[in-house]
Amino acid sequence: SEERSLNFIEEIIENDLNSGKYKTLVTRFPPEPNGYLHIGHAKAICLNFGLTQKYGGYTNLRFDDTNPVTEKTEYVNSQQEDIKWLGFQWKNELYTSDYFDTLYDFAVKLIEKDLAYVDHSTADEIAAMKGTPTEPGKNNSYRSRSIQENLDLFMRMKNGEFADGVCTLRAKIDMAHTNMLMRDPIIYRIKHAHHHRTGDKWCIYPMYDFAHGQSDSIEEITHSICTLEYVSHRELYDWFIEKLEIFPSHQYEFARLNLNYTVMSKRKLLQLVNQGVVSGWDDPRMPTISGLRRRGYTPESIREFCDRIGIAKRDNLIELSLLEFCVREHLNKTANRVMAVLDPIKMVISNYPEGQSETLYGENNPEAEDKGGSREIPFSKTLWIEREDFMEVPAKKWFRLAPGAMVRLKHAYIVKCEDFVKDVEGNVTEIHCSYIPESKSGEDVSGINVKGTIHWVSAAHAKTAEIRMYDRLFSVESPDAEEGDFKDYLNPGSMEVIKNAYIEPYLASADLSSRYQFIRKGYYCLDKDSTAQHLIFNRTVGLKDAWAK
Ligand code: ATP
Ligand code: MG
Ligand code: MG
Hints:
Layout: H1 8-18, E1 26-29, H2 39-55, E2 58-63, H3 73-86, E3 93-95, H4 100-112, E4 116-119, H5 123-129, H6 147-158, E5 168-171, E6 186-190, E7 204-206, H7 208-218, E8 223-227, H8 234-244, E9 250-254, E10 257-259, H9 266-274, H10 289-295, H11 299-309, E11 316-318, H12 320-334, E12 336-338, E13 340-341, E14 344-349, E15 357-363, E16 374-380, E17 382-386, E18 406-409, E19 414-422, E20 428-436, E21 453-454, E22 456-458, E23 463-470, E24 495-503, E25 515-518, E26 522-526, E27 535-542
Helix pairs in contact: 2-11, 7-8, 11-12
Bound molecules: adenosine-5'-triphosphate and magnesium ion (2 copies).
């Protein structure tokens, strides 16, 4: 893509590298394995991996697995697959849970410095003593416990002597601090739960703020990039690093990606999966990377999208149509053109010999340098064409089929409509044409010029396919911002299934990595549920933005 000016993170990094503050750039992508990755994560992936591709150094993949209840190995695996598919490779695969021993030692160190204490208050009591943004909080009696008592109690917390919620470990900072997060935040809580990696070894787990920055520091991450919700956490991030006297990682924040007509939190996407609103995390309507992949998106188009939206410092809502634009642009360059008839009507060529057929050739992609090679297309007396390409009473400037009118059949001949057949209800069921043998594409000596070209498939050779057409999952721009539950705003027409489309026989050899332009229709790819007996194609995106104003 084109040259663009540096974003603010690149400016910081260039300064830090030029001044010698850091010799090597180290970034990380830190997903919590509590769901599948979505397009917002793709933004963070492209940013973190993109920076080390540009400036050298490396990027770690760190699973932020401090919450045993919501995390699963299935998610760890899918997240890795998605990052690789996007085209990135991490240096080290790491888990916050691998640092549980170190983090425990860090907590002990804080206690020894009289900077942490075990608090036996209930959650409600803690909240009541916290104060408000305009009023200071209050110290409770546990805050003055001795270092020795705290060391003993914390060890007993670790040893499983207390039930969930009985006590917590809190940092001793300042209950009157202007930043509410600095008012003695909880850093460890008791949770007797099985962890997907550490099993039952631990019954105390560090809170995000006591795990994230320290993990960055352990890995000597130089630039820890996160989204804007963490701006107020930065003070705490720096406080722990300073008090623990560990490697000075720094946190930088950028605006999270929000896309219109969808929701983006893993928690909400999980609801859609669990309640059967979609068929799974990789339902082609989902904003997940696996959903986009199944829908036919390419890694290139997603990377281009992330590049185009840039790095913002303020929250904003990005148009889904920009994502669609990016995939359309990439597929236009790379997808083979084929013919598929989605709403078929029969065309009989009266002057073509019965029982005969011939092989025509079609170039696969006029946009590609080598034209994508060519393929064989069988032609015969009876064809399927698109119902909408015929009008009994033609409109003004109608260049397609109508009684007496001529069109070119793509890659084949010019035909003239001689007659048509209707059923008792008045629906057109068959169109009768004559063809002009001298008008064959590529060797046309007929001297006839026609304005319209339509697509078709030979009835005797066509394969039947199911076509799944997708649209926006929600009918409002910001389902999160609406009144009531976000699921009240689902688009009832988000999926339309065409059971009996006819496609070129060439498409029977499609595999999951192939993407096609069904000419005049849009971009399509094979679905993973497809079998040789039952072909299924997904529509990635139409040829034009159907929603454009
Ligand atoms: P979710 O609510 O979807 O679970 P999260 O921020 O809790 O989001 P994490 O797994 O913790 O999800 O995210 C891993 C990384 O991806 C974090 O650094 C986070 O900042 C980043 N990230 C998550 N969502 C977005 C988004 N919409 N835009 C940009 N970055 C994001
Ligand atoms: Mg998170
Ligand atoms: Mg989350």
